[in-house]
Amino acid sequence: MAVSSFDKRMMAAAIRYSYRNLGRTGTNPSVTTLLVRDDGEVPVIVGRGITAIGGRPHAETEAILEAGDLARGATAYVTLEPCAHHGSTPPCAEALVRDGIRRVVAATTDPDGRVSGQGYKILEDGGIEVEAGVLASDAEYAMAGYLTQRELGRPHVTLKMALSNDGKIGSRGSGQVAITGPESNAVSHVLRATSDVIIVGIGTVLEDDPSLTCRLPGMEDRTPARLVLDRNLRLPLQSALVRSAHDHPVIVATTRLPDDGKYQQLSEAGCLMMACEESDTGIALPELLDDLAGRGYSTVLVEGGAAVARAFLDAHLVDRIRLYVGPGEIGKDGVEAPVDPDNMPSGFELTGTEIYGADRRFEYERSR
Ligand SMILES: NC(=O)c1ccc[n+]([C@@H]2O[C@H](COP(=O)([O-])OP(=O)(O)OC[C@H]3O[C@@H](n4cnc5c(N)ncnc54)[C@H](OP(=O)(O)O)[C@@H]3O)[C@@H](O)[C@H]2O)c1
Description:
The protein is an alpha/beta fold. The chain folds into two domains: 5-146, Cytidine Deaminase, domain 2; 153-366, Dihydrofolate Reductase, subunit A (3-Layer(aba) Sandwich), CATH 3.40.430. Helix content is 28%, strand content 24%. It has a nine-stranded mixed beta sheet. The two termini are 32 Å apart. The model has no long low-confidence stretch (mean pLDDT 95). Bound molecules: NADP nicotinamide-adenine-dinucleotide phosphate. NADP nicotinamide-adenine-dinucleotide phosphate is lined by residues 161-162, 169-170, 172, 179, 200-204, 207-208, 229-232, 234, 281-283, 285, 303-308, 311, 335. NADP nicotinamide-adenine-dinucleotide phosphate (NAP) is lined by residues 161-162, 169-170, 172, 179, 200-204, 207-208, 229-232, 234, 281-283, 285, 303-308, 311, 335.
């Protein structure tokens, strides 16, 4: 049976649903399953599953549980190839066979060596018809953290910056400068909510005193870990970050040692201290990303400032760039943007432009 436009619609819905738990599933990807029955009248979704917070249970078993007996004979739309390895629970591919799923439509193949192709094989050996690769690039976009982790062994890195119309990102000595409007700001907070960790440099903290929280109504608990690159522990104890360290994690990446007085003060204030290696420009970034991967973080959002953004770009450690360009100008004394739509580093391709109120958003992806 060929892939129909209905299959694509269902897969698009499944991928949209997968965004709900992005940033909350640890080292597991946020995957969804929709079980759809077509008994001759109109097709009906009889079961929905999404990877649970923390990474277990998986989407397939949740959807089967919801569908109950109606799962038998249904089509399963899965955003990732069902798992094939035995852990503490049997593989999801076996669960789909056991519960009588008739057909599986999948978006992405799992690059995990224990699964890749094996999940599909279990399904086909069990008599299930399989269609793979449906809306694969949309699912890969949503699952970029997991896929980058598996393929490159480090988290996926998005660089996000707001630029004035004259290519500036701030103004020294002026604190936070409003560059974009409420629509862009709300979308940026969704990006925070779906990331595992936000990184900023100590320069931004000293200049802007940001809290880096997700402030969308009802989503305040989606604030990710916030990490400051701060070799010399200049982070003020009275900063918004330190004051909120007991509410949402604050990680201080430093080269200072635990016998340092400020180290102890920050630690007592609730900050998580992270010992780092040093490079010419500051904290050594590849090693930092290695350590973050080891802690289970798979999506990193770099929110600046200028020096940190440049360091990530120079180290070729940025996978996706989101630029918001506001209508106002900051003037010649402003902080020059390290990157702008007329000055993109090689290897990045424009993948989308959007309008949010008076702002324009440009998104770029590194070619793989
Ligand atoms: N519009 C936007 O989207 C946006 C976002 C954020 C910030 N900003 C603006 O950016 C400006 C601040 O930028 P900035 O360049 O002064 O500061 P920054 O990039 O936030 O921080 C730079 C500092 O971070 C530390 N650092 C540690 N490891 C580093 C590494 N590997 N690479 C680079 N820095 C490292 C260094 O201090 P140590 O040597 O002491 O460790 C360095 O001086 C402010 O005006 C702020 O308003 C704008």
